[in-house]
Structure formats: C-alpha cells, structure tokens
Design goal:
The chain is mostly beta strands. It has two helices and eight strands. The longest helix has 18 residues.
Length: 171
C-alpha cells in the first residue's frame, strides 16, 4: 500500500523530531544571520477556484537576521509556475516577501510564526499579505531544517505553499 501525503509528512516530522533531539540546541542571538533554501508546492492559484487547480512546484531562498533571541526579520523570494487565470502568458511568477518572524522556543525544536508583505511579480503586479507557521529543527551545529506553511493573498490570487528548507545559521 503506497504512503499518502499526510502519512509521509507525519513520518518526516517524527524522524526530524527524533534527530533534532540528538542535535545540539541552536539558540539565536541578536544580529545572527541566516540563509535558507526552500522547495515546496503551490496548492492554490485562485481564491475562486480552490479545488480546480493542481499543485505546482515552487522554490525559493530566504535571508534573515535576528533582532533578538526570538524576533527576526526575513526577506524571502519564491518562484512558481504561472497561474494562467491571473498572470498568463508568463511561464513563471516571482514572490518577494518581507516578514517579521516570531520564534516561540529558544532551543531544540523551534516553532515559529511569521507575517509580512509580499510583492507578486506577474503581468499584473500585486501587493499581498503573507502569513505562515512552521518549525525549525536543528541538524548539526549551524545547520537546521524547517518545515512550514506560508500563505499569500491579495486581489483574486491566493497562494498556499508548504515547503521544506535547509537553513545555515551564521554565528
């Protein structure tokens, strides 16, 4: 019997939680910088046709800086296949986001939430709101992994994007 997606995510989260427990804690300090490379999917393309669109792959890069142990500011870019209902004839769209990140734990598994603004570069550019939740898992010293769910919305376009990221923390 093949594994369905929710089961795969549950298994992945369990493995990462066990691995993170063995990794050294990664508390953040004011001024600490990080870079993250992420890959995932775009689940929704248009707010009016939620169940009629297929998931499209996407990828991006984030850079950020901690303002304190639990607060960071992040600049995120994301590239996705174009949504033909809003942005044709482009083959790709770019999202550029600036968000404030609130980390809810200082060591070990670190859940977080974020909110900010996004610029959607398409045939008809749009400003959107971005919100998200996720968790970062320490892997090894400066390396971490994050699994998160980010949502962008504005106008008639809505983007829901689960992703996994590999994070490098500059100490």
């Amino acid at each position: 019997m093949p594994l369905r997606r929710p089961e795969v995510y549950i298994i992945l989260l369990t493995v990462m939680a066990l691995w993170a427990d063995a990794a050294s804690g990664q508390g953040h300090h004011s001024g600490e910088k990080y870079v993250a490379v992420r890959a995932g999917a775009n689940l929704v393309g248009n707010a009016y046709r939620v169940r009629e669109t297929k998931p499209e792959p996407g990828a991006g890069v984030s850079i950020g800086s901690f303002l304190s142990q639990r607060w960071a500011v992040e600049f995120d870019t994301w590239m996705r296949a174009s949504n033909p209902e809003c942005c044709a004839p482009r083959s790709t769209e770019m999202l550029y986001s600036v968000s404030v990140v609130r980390v809810l734990a200082s060591e070990g598994i670190q859940p977080y939430m974020l909110g900010g603004l996004t610029f959607l570069q398409a045939d008809h550019p749009q400003m959107q709101v971005q919100i998200g939740v996720g968790a970062q898992f320490p892997l090894y010293r400066r390396l971490g992994m994050a699994i998160d769910l980010r949502g962008n919305g504005g106008g008639s376009t809505m983007i829901v994007r689960p992703s996994a990221a590999l994070i490098y923390n500059f100490h």
